[in-house]
Amino acid sequence: MKPIRVALLGFGVVGSGTYNVLLRNQSEIVRRAGRAIEIAAIVDLDTEKVKAATGGAVEVSGDAMATLSRPDIDVVIELIGGYTIAKKFVMAAIEAGKHVVTANKALLATHGNEIFAAAREKGVMVAFEAAVAGGIPVIKAVREGLTANRIEWIAGIINGTSNFILSEMRGKGLPFTEVLKQAQALGYAEADPTFDIEGVDAAHKLTILSSLAFGTPLQFEKAYVEGISSLEQADIRYAEELGYRLKLLGITRRTANGIELRVHPTLIPSKRLIANVEGVMNAVLVKADAVGATLYYGAGAGSEPTASAVIADLVDIARLQSADPRNRVPYSAFQADQVEDLPMLPMDDVKTSFYLRMRVADRPGVLADITRILAQGSISIGAMIQKEPAAGEAQADIVLLTHQCIEGDVRRAISAIEALDSVVSAVTRIRLEELA
Ligand code: HSE
Questions:
Q1: Measuring from atom 7 of ligand 1, which residue has the nearest CA?
Q2: Active site residues
Q3: What would be the CATH architecture of the domain defined by 138-299?
Q4: Residues 373-383: pLDDT tens digits?
Q5: How crowded is the C-beta side of 217, counted as CA atoms within 13 Å?
Q6: pLDDT per residue over 78-137, tens digit each?
Q7: CATH assignment of 4-137+303-338, among 3.30.1490.20, 3.40.50.720, 3.90.360.10, 3.40.190.10
Q8: CA gap 371, 383 in Å, rounded
Q9: 201 lines ligand 1 (CB under 6 A)
Q10: Which of 158, 302, 311, 436 is 20 to 30 A off residue 19, Cα-Cα?
């Protein structure tokens, strides 16, 4: 069979990994795909860098538009990142009738609906396994492996940088800013590290997972996003003492009133497998009605792990290229005319548990005032810690865990607690999920 010919746009960490893995495992890949996959051209602004790395074995160009529209190209791999140039090239590739493979979660989360519509029109595939959780084949699992199920919820550690930071803060007792510098030096962080630490990168990935799980349009703009930059050592230690671990989780859940789509620091029981995912590793826990809970774990970033996902997409395209477009796996798991614009649940209506920490004056009646406010908001306390004040101090930390309650009730209760004279700090509020 004729080889499938590929234009590779972007020769950075993932692009070079894709080139190397394809070269190294070519014969194994051909045995699976039934045909060779050939990189016909690599496009990068730094053509000298690519020439040096490939030793002249591949045509190198700085002109993406000219390359992607060449008649001999079947597939365009977009590994540039960002929303502007990448979008222009992806749309041009589709317009030219090329199949597209992309690792670009930001692009899909924000422009995916438009990209899929254009691709459907042209009858081409858009594959994006590498966009979520790097090398973990979680797109394939959610879109195809779990197709018999009604998916109930997904909770994932889907940003390696923030997981690395939280692991180091817990393991070594280091402050946030110091660990962030380490993560940047190790090359884990996105070009703009605020995407990692403020939850944006995780929200891009969660948006994609949510759409695949529930058959809804991609709606990144409706995601609730809160990062890890204001977390303190004290919260990691108190969480530990109460049997919980602090993770940046992406959570999407189908409820009777709408879809939850939220990324925020979350306490989860230390005994859960997912609580023990450390460093830059990713894990996605999917709860579905027939299979129950399944957990997908592995490298969420990096050159060859992400290349593994890119090449899996290439093999899918090689196998399905000649199939009638109507018989291919739909872009977002559900048939296009079955995508439902379900309402998104406002954060104030989300039901979850909470960790609340506050510093109070150590005098009679303080705890009674706080518990009265919580009771008035129908917020039930599940656990509590109060430490004796240090010698000579007249203030103490109180830490409370609530049972499940409505976020809006907790927000109002926090305002009332912070208004008490006896409460001398802002209330630290972290959501808690049992993931049972
Ligand atoms: N910056 C991302 C992370 C890797 O830390 O997980 C690519 O998605």
A1: 301
A2: 205
A3: 2-Layer Sandwich (3.30)
A4: 999 999 999 99
A5: 16
A6: 999 999 999 999 999 999 999 999 999 999 999 999 999 999 999 999 999 999 999 999
A7: 3.40.50.720
A8: 12
A9: yes
A10: 158
